[in-house]
Design brief:
Largest sheet: 6 strands, mixed
Function: Catalyzes the folate-dependent formation of 5-methyl-uridine at position 54 (M-5-U54) in all tRNAs.
Number of domains: 2
Strand content: 15-25%
Radius of gyration: 22 Å
Mean pLDDT: 93
Low-confidence stretches: none
Organism: Flintibacter hominis
Bound molecules: flavin-adenine dinucleotide
GO molecular function: flavin adenine dinucleotide binding; tRNA (uracil(54)-C5)-methyltransferase activity, 5,10-methylenetetrahydrofolate-dependent
Number of strands: 17
CATH superfamily of the largest domain: FAD/NAD(P)-binding domain
Order of helices and strands: EHEEHHEEHEEHEEEEHHEEHEEHEEHHH
Main location: cytoplasm
Subcellular location: Cytoplasm
CATH architecture of the largest domain: 3-Layer(bba) Sandwich
CATH class of the largest domain: Alpha Beta
Length: about 425
């Protein structure tokens, strides 16, 4: 059987390699880590999460919950490792990032059909089937090679920021408490309250704090879903209180009331020794992060194991370049997967890797492609990415707006979404997905 080269062992590349290998196709997986690291990757492991440890909602009334379930039903490697290494996070699927990435690496490296080749890829292989999954921080040389592939087209980009991590022992638990919003489920978050006076001081310092130099960055180029906390704060005094500092459903046991604002911390590893500050992606200078965030009473002595950082995130103008299987139009031996295609997010990147690999495997087996229909989240995302009528293409999270409506009335948004998810899983069940 002809082998496939997969470039990049991130979420998309690892998933793609796995899907091919489990269908008996030999894979050469080329990864530059640990020889060369992107500015956001820090470990030798595959499937490394560069920012939050949350894969977002795991509920079927939420489109990303549906996307996860569809991936599980496609025997996704990433989902299986995420489920194995989950840490409690209310209705979300959060993972112990190290154990998760380690598990992916072990399963990839021990698969008999996968050969891992270490080192930076600087040119696109001239022959054979290739899946390019080198991510939003593709190395410069490969990035240039990709540009040469699409003369006249340009890379698009935006900026993506990561949130800081702090140690549990440095959080002042006398000024914080464990709870989930509305006390639903288990008390998974540490809640750090602020009074109105404390919030005003914090907010004023935050909007005037010094930012780190990021070449070419302006507020306009930030993705709404991952906006730095200081950029959001500059939109108005109350904006954060409707966003990451929303106190609704969080009653402080000391007062029995909802505080003016609440900063939430989510467990980042299974031992619960590290927490991340939810929604605090930032590009403030490191000293400024420590100074300003210490105005949150529970974080006054916080010890940072990683500060927030910001990076330029590049992606292709996919509607003009790729088809519904993430293949390059007119050069079908080349496929792209992951964030570089303009899908946005960990789970979305994984989904594109799965679809690209399933299609390629079918082609190599001489079978008809599996057409994931628009009713499924995996299909809807791919159809959006390759929709030539989309003019001003921007990174896209999965959402129910991409999936056709039901055509009949269902009362209540949650019920309606649950019904759309049910229909999606039925449609997925009709596809021939098994090797
Ligand atoms: C700073 C930042 C923060 C983000 N935060 C979040 C978040 O909180 N939540 C979320 O859902 N999404 C987030 N994203 C978006 C996105 O989900 C992640 O970037 C995700 O990791 C993308 O998966 P991927 O497989 O496409 O790329 P990656 O996971 O980045 O994998 C690409 C792999 O390719 C390798 N590589 C690169 N160039 C080469 C080369 N030339 N040769 C060989 N190997 C190469 C890299 O080392 C890497 O291992 C963030 C992105 C950035 C940049």
């Amino acid at each position: 059987m002809e082998s496939v080269i997969v470039i990049g062992a991130g979420l998309a590349g690892s998933e793609a390699a796995w899907q091919l290998a489990r269908r008996g196709i030999p894979v050469e997986l080329r990864e530059m880590k640990p020889q060369k690291m992107t500015p956001a990757h820090h470990t030798e492991y595959f499937g490394e999460l560069v920012c939050s440890n949350s894969l977002r909602s795991d509920q079927m009334e939420n489109a990303v919950g549906l996307l996860k379930e569809e991936l599980r039903r496609c025997s996704s490697l990433i989902m299986s490792c995420a489920d194995e290494h989950r840490v409690e996070a209310g209705g979300a699927l959060a993972v112990d990032r190290h154990a998760f990435a380690q598990a992916i690496t072990e399963r990839i490296k021990s698969h008999p059909n996968i050969t891992v080749v270490e080192g930076e890829v600087t040119e696109i292989p001239e022959a054979g089937n290739v899946i390019l999954a080198s991510g939003p921080l593709t190395s410069e040389a490969l990035s240039e090679a990709i540009s040469r592939l699409f003369p006249g087209s340009r890379y698009l980009n935006f900026f993506d920021a990561a949130a800081p991590l702090v140690t549990f022992e440095s959080v002042d638990m006398d000024s914080a408490w464990f709870a989930s919003r509305y006390d639903r489920g288990t008390p998974d978050y540490i809640n750090c309250p602020l009074t109105e006076e404390e919030y005003d001081v914090f907010w004023r310092e935050l909007i005037h704090a010094q930012e780190a130099e990021v070449h070419g960055f302006e507020d306009a180029g930030v993705f709404e879903g991952c906006m730095p906390v200081e950029v959001m704060a500059r939109r108005g005094r109350d904006t954060l209180c409707y966003g990451p500092l929303k106190p609704v459903g969080l009653k402080d046991p000391k007062t029995g009331k909802e505080p003016f604002a609440v900063v939430q911390l989510r467990k980042d590893n299974a031992q619960g020794t590290i927490y991340n500050i939810v929604g605090f992606q930032t590009h403030l200078k490191w000293g400024e992060q420590k100074r300003v965030f210490s105005m949150i009473p529970a974080l006054k002595n916080a010890e940072y194991v990683r500060y927030g950082v910001m990076h330029r995130n590049t992606f292709l103008d996919s509607p003009r370049l790729l088809d519904r299987y993430y293949r390059v139009r007119g050069q079908e031996r080349l496929m792209f997967a992951g964030q570089i295609t303009g899908v946005e997010g960990y789970v979305e990147s994984t989904a594109s890797g799965a679809l690209a690999a399933i299609e390629l495997a079918r082609r190599l087996e001489g079978k008809e492609p599996v057409n994931f229909p628009r009713e499924t989240a995996i299909g809807a995302l791919a159809l959006y990415i390759s929709d030539q009528s989309v003019v001003n293409f921007q990174p896209m999270n999965i959402n129910f707006g991409l999936i056709p409506q039901l055509g009949y009335r269902v009362k209540g948004k949650r019920n309606k979404n649950a019904e759309i998810s049910k229909r999606a899983l039925e449609a997925l069940g009709k596809l021939d997905l098994e090797p």
